User: Which sequence fits this backbone?
C-alpha cells in the first residue's frame, strides 16, 4: 500500500452573505485546471428546505508529478440557507444568492502510488528507509509546493468573496411556505 502524507488538514473558510454559488464552483474549478490538476467530482447535492437550499459540493483534484509522487487535494463546500435576494451594486438592483458557506480543504501527498515496493516486507522496509533518508529533501520540496498551491486556492476564494462584500442586500430571503 502506498504511503499517504497529510500536508494540509481541514483548512476552513467561513462566509455568510451574498454570493453566487455557481460562480464559486467555476472559480475553484478554473483555478485547479490552471494549476494542472485533474478533477474528480465526488458529490454534487442540492436539497430544498424551508429555510433555503442546502448544497454540498466536493471535488478531489489530483496531479501526478512523477511515477512516484501524486498530489491529492480534497475541496468540500457546504452551503446552507441559500436563497435569492435583491441587492444593489453600482446603483443597479440585481438578484444574487445569499447564505452561509463553510469550505474545507485537505491536501495529501501519495508516495509510491503504483505500489511497486509492496511485493515483499523487505521491499517495504527499503521503501521506508529510502523515503526517510534519501528522498527526504525531494519530498519536502513537493510538500512545500502543494502547501503553496492549497493556500493560494484559499486566498483566491477569499478574494472572490471580497467582491461580494460591497453588495448591499435590500430584500430578505423569502422562506418557502408549506
Assistant:
Amino acid at each position: 500500500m502506498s504511503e499517504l502524507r497529510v500536508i494540509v488538514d481541514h483548512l476552513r473558510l467561513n462566509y455568510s452573505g451574498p454570493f453566487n454559488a455557481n460562480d464559486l464552483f467555476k472559480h475553484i474549478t478554473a483555478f485547479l485546471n490552471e494549476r494542472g490538476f485533474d478533477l474528480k467530482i465526488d458529490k454534487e447535492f442540492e436539497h430544498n428546505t424551508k429555510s433555503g437550499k442546502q448544497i454540498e459540493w466536493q471535488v478531489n483534484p489530483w496531479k501526478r508529478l512523477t511515477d512516484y509522487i501524486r498530489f491529492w487535494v480534497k475541496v468540500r463546500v457546504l452551503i446552507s440557507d441559500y436563497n435569492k435576494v435583491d441587492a444593489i451594486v453600482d446603483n443597479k438592483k440585481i438578484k444574487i444568492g445569499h447564505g452561509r458557506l463553510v469550505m474545507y480543504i485537505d491536501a495529501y501527498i501519495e508516495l509510491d502510488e503504483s505500489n511497486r515496493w509492496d511485493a515483499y516486507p523487505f521491499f517495504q522496509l527499503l521503501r521506508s528507509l529510502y523515503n526517510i533518508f534519501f528522498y527526504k529533501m525531494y519530498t519536502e520540496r513537493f510538500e512545500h509546493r502543494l502547501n503553496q498551491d492549497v493556500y493560494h486556492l484559499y486566498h483566491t476564494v477569499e478574494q472572490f468573496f471580497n467582491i461580494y462584500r460591497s453588495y448591499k442586500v435590500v430584500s430578505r430571503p423569502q422562506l418557502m411556505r408549506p
In short: The radius of gyration is 21 Å. Strands lie at 3-18, 41-49, 52-59, 62-64, 69-89, 92-111, 168-169. The chain has a mean pLDDT of 89.
